[in-house]
Amino acid sequence: MHRKPVRPVLVVIAHGSRDPRHAATVHSLVRRVRSLRPDVRVETGFLDFNIPSVQGVLESLAAEGVRDVVALPLLLTRAFHAKADIPAVLRDAPSRLRIRQAEVLGPSPLLTAALERRLYEAGLAPADKSSTGVVLASAGSTDPEAIAVIAEIAREWRHTGWCAVRPAFASASLPRTEDAVRELRALGCAKVAVAPYVLAPGFLPDRIARGAAEADVLADVLGPAPEVARVLLARYEAARTPLLAAVGA
């Protein structure tokens, strides 16, 4: 008689913030993920500022006898945290754990759909699309790969019917949100909307909001949008398959 294989535990790894809105949004997203997949155990760990820490979550799972874990970075691009911080934490995990690091969430057509959802929730109508310029406002990074990804998302999103789409960054890179807003005005877009390409509120999203002062519409952060939860689960499924194959499941 064959036992049904146990699904790997999904550990969502968030950056953490002193701003309490950050952790609250992360937990809200994780609750949505759990509601979509009640058969998957989902835990949350933070790299900094909030508890539980990633290390604490992994040590607790190992103490329970858990063997297989998918560690999923709650990040939109493969920048420093995905390439350095998180792998370093995972290397220090208890040796009994078999851990596979999932890919970051972006880019994904589902995330673009979530951006549009937030814009419409903020007051835009689908009929406004062709006359509206959009600022795709990211937190920013010193990593060229991450910056290139944001620029490519903006180029591809433009082809879905917007007047124009421009990338902007709250830190590390240029242009800033306010500069992109002015550029879209100069291009002649009837409306300008700012779409924060960030997952949770905090210091840099607040800077994006300030930069959107001259825009007509400011969307909310992606947060617990259903599309984000679906991307998260897709990354989990892609990462868990090799783990299951390794144990003959």
From TrEMBL:
CDD domains: CbiX_SirB_C, CbiX_SirB_N. The keyword Lyase applies. Signal peptide: none annotated. Keywords: Lyase, Metal-binding. One of its GO terms (molecular function) is metal ion binding. The keyword Lyase applies. This is Cobalamin (Vitamin B12) biosynthesis CbiX protein.
